[in-house]
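Notebook entry, structure prediction.
Reason for the run: the old model in the group folder had no record of what sequence produced it. Starting over properly, with the input documented here first.
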Amino acid sequence: MRIRIVGIAAVAAILMSPASAGAQSAQPWSLQGSALLANVDLGGELVGGVGIEAQLRYTPAALWSAGIGIQSTTHKSGGEQLSLSGFFVEPRYALDIGSDRFAPYLAGRLAVLSQDSDLTNAPNAKSSGFAIGGGGGLLIRATPKMNVDLGVAFVNQSFSDATASNGSVVKFDAFFGYVAKVGVSFGF
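New structure, fully documented this time:
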């Protein structure tokens, strides 16, 4: 019930905002740092994890922008751990709702990742992979040069098989997961 009230209040705030050209960065370049929540398939179980991302974003027009960045998350379950890191590209289209403070957006995400896992029967296993997907979010203009970014992407992740330090082979099946973020960007 509380989530529904917060959602209704957010929609009302967006609809009652003064009209303007959208809330993407007014500057052509911005740097963003975000806290991440994500999940991975660890032995047939989806395991949540936390991490960070940093990106450089170019905004050539009020509604379009493209970001490149790095991300890293760590996922633990029992005594097992899996860490992901890599590079991503994130094109974004902000929806013009007539507000100069808020802009919902649609985004794509393509990431090249490496994983380093320490599993019970397969210590020190490493492999590479990729993630592709899309999602959206909400940009909130806090100051003329600073935005808050709340977003989520749903991605299909796939990794190659990994050989552990004990010689065992770990097979990573493709899986569908998410990346949720809360970030702050600074335009320049």
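Summary: Residues 4-22 have pLDDT under 50 and may be disordered.
The old model has been moved to the deprecated folder.
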